[in-house]
Amino acid sequence: MDSILKKGLFLVTTAGAITAFPATAYASDTATDDVMPQMGIEEVLNNCYSSDKEIEVEDYLVPTEKGEYLDMAFANVETFLYIRSEPTRESEWVGKLYPDYAAKILGPVGEWTKIESGEVTGYVCSEYIIVGNSAEQKAQEMVQDSETEDPTDAFTYAESKEEEEERLAREAEEAALRAQEEAAAKGGTGQAIVDFACQFIGNPYVWGGTSLTNGADCSGFVQSVFANFGISLPRTTRDLVSVGTPVSYDQAIPGDIILYDGHVGIYMGTGQIVNAINSAQGIGILPATYTSIVTVRRLI
């Protein structure tokens, strides 16, 4: 019997668990394919046990062919697919499947299919999901591409209506916080620009000049101040009217530049600008609204 177990090929049909019902086994350990006497699986196993051989019972059972992921479905959409509480388009939606999101099939695939995905259970329109062998193939590819230790980590599951509301609220809060941080950073840089520019108050105005110490005109002064912070600006007020981002005067912050008809200055806040005024006054401070404003530009 030891020789038979080594060389033979057994096919034993069982009904459910292993029982003592007889089954016919065939083996070939010669070229003539002799037929063995009939025996039940208990006898096969007893003979193996008596010969101190380790065997796996599953080796003697007829396997059931079934894909590992045949009970899965994947959203075949470009935006998202509603998961509804009932199999109708009029019913309330309870979650969303985004492109390639995964779900487990809970019911027959008809016009509507009952699925479970993440924390959401409901119905999806079968027209927009991938199922069967196509789903099996897609799942296998996603698992291979993910290279994760746990194959289930390769899949992304539905977002419930409540989860979406929480996510959107969280994202709005984070966006507001980022905007505040950016404004604070800009304000800090803008104030640094103002502080730097104010060091040169009292220095001379020179038409066509760009020297902060020996003399500059209005646009030369602005150009040289911003150059110190790595910001390159055009030389004339005519070109400066289109740089940066336009903002209204009531939104102006320190470091913005304010342009007038033929003149430009750096907004200091509190309704003032630092600028190269004229040959009589040199570099100094003026009210931001001393004359009509053409535009306010934000450069940081």
From TrEMBL:
- Keywords on this record? Hydrolase, Protease, Signal, Thiol protease
Domain of life (superkingdom): Bacteria
What PROSITE patterns does the annotation carry? NLPC_P60 (PS51935)
Coiled-coil intervals:
none
Q: Name one GO biological process term.
A: proteolysis
What InterPro entries does the record point to?
Answer: NLP_P60_dom (IPR000064), Papain-like_cys_pep_sf (IPR038765), Peptidase_C40 (IPR051202)
As given in the record, the signal peptide range reads: 1-27
Q: Name one Pfam family in it.
A: NLPC_P60
Task: Give the NlpC/P60 domain ranges.
Answer: 187-300
One GO MF annotation is: cysteine-type peptidase activity
Entry annotated with the keyword Signal: yes
The UniProt entry's sequence similarity note says:
Belongs to the peptidase C40 family.
Query: What's this protein's name?
Result: SH3 domain-containing protein
